[in-house]
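Good morning,

Both structures are done.
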Amino acid sequence: MYRFLLSRRWAFITLIALLLIPAMIRLGFWQLHRHEARVARNELIAHSLTSPAVPFDTLSGSPGFVVPTELTWRAVTATGRYDPAHEFVVRGRTEPGGSSIGYFVVTPLELADGRGEVLVNRGWVDSGTDATSYPKVPATPAGEVTVTGRMRADETTASSGIRDRGGLPDRQFKLINGGQQAAASGERVLGGYLELVSTSPQPADGPVLLAEPNHSDIGPHMAYAVQWWLFCGLVPVGLVVMARREARERAAEAGSAAEPELVDA
């Protein structure tokens, strides 16, 4: 009754099914690992944001310092004077909580201990109507200030996915990168930068501060993993259903072919 399972057609169907099962299992584990990575990232961000702020110079003290993953988003403080002469803006950045495209305003802070400058992303400003001119930016506070910010790694094309390019208007860039700014300004710029949270004393005006990163959404990856594993379990069930259906159809066809012969007898 099931001799048709030995046919070339069914051998091909079975082969495809046998290939699909491990592929779906692997895809399920891939989504599971993405879920675990997302949960770990959220826990890291939550821990970094709620930990007491530490001095910036205890984490980064040299140009070219690469901020490790475990220090990303860490709350830090730095004291010094802003260097507005070397301020720049970063093009093509989205308004916090919105969809408008504008600029991030990045100003170096000359540290009070003389170790160098740290880049401070002071926030977002609108691009206005002229994308070739330097935007209207609130002035930096005068005198010595203490800033609190979130520790970030220097941006690169590889890490951000943003294609860097030259030929931009004066003091406009695509990335926040200490090495790039050191080459442009000739100053000693320390590795890593700060995403501004607060300033003391508080200025009267400033760019729109960036919101802290979302660390509550775990994404759909676990649901996708379960779906792949369910699909995997359905493959053999589907094979059985297809085989039984074809067996019934073949039996019905055989019965229909034999019926006239029984009448003639």
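Second structure follows.
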Amino acid sequence: MKQSSIDPEIVQRFLSRKIHHQREYFMHPPYVIEKRLFNSIIAANCESAVTCLDKINTLERAVLAEEPVRSLKNSLICSCTLMTRAAIEGGMPPEVAFNLSDAYIQEIERKEKMTDLSLLEYTMLEGFIRKLKEARRSSRHYSHAVHLAIEYIQENSLQDFSLENLANHVYLNPAYLSHLFKKEVGTSITDFINRVKTRESVYFLLHTNNSISEVALLFHFCNQSYYTTVFKKYFGMTPSQFRKQRGEEGRQKTDLDDFSLI
């Protein structure tokens, strides 16, 4: 198969950034306070979570861009990532968490005042906890095997793995895993994988000048046409249209987690 010509250093930065967000979240606040915030969200304890966020916000924020508003937006994107993953860990269906994250990221990008952005961080926190409570009331919890499958998909988005590989990883028969995943998550494994890959491909659309076909190849879509079809399904526009629109809006600096990595 033809190899992608995307600079390996860019891929490495993507992977490093992904690992950072998935395992470390945002590292600048003291880890113990951040961990308490994470656990408070998992426990759906809004009072405790707000207290932890208050403590974090008494500290100086990391400088994540030269322009203060952009820096704060990037910081809130990191916060949204942490909240998204904590909510999923607490039992919120990934699709619900991702859609909520998408909405908040869009709201972050719309805000231009520091005060509005600061208030939005608390709105996000309370919104994630409220939705998590709703999810728990609906009794939609994921089995250990499905959780493992989701983690595998997240961690191997740049790999060309098969259903058999995934099933072997969770020690289940492929047919049974497909049935279980569809039942619990509400979507097929293939659809879920495509969503993860297209969301993560956003990084390369915004941060590189590589062609659409090269980005499609990097994520092991069979061809550019299929990648375009899948991308449009989730984002409502083609990759080319998306890249053009974001560029015109001056959002090239938008982080990978603008689109809520799964």
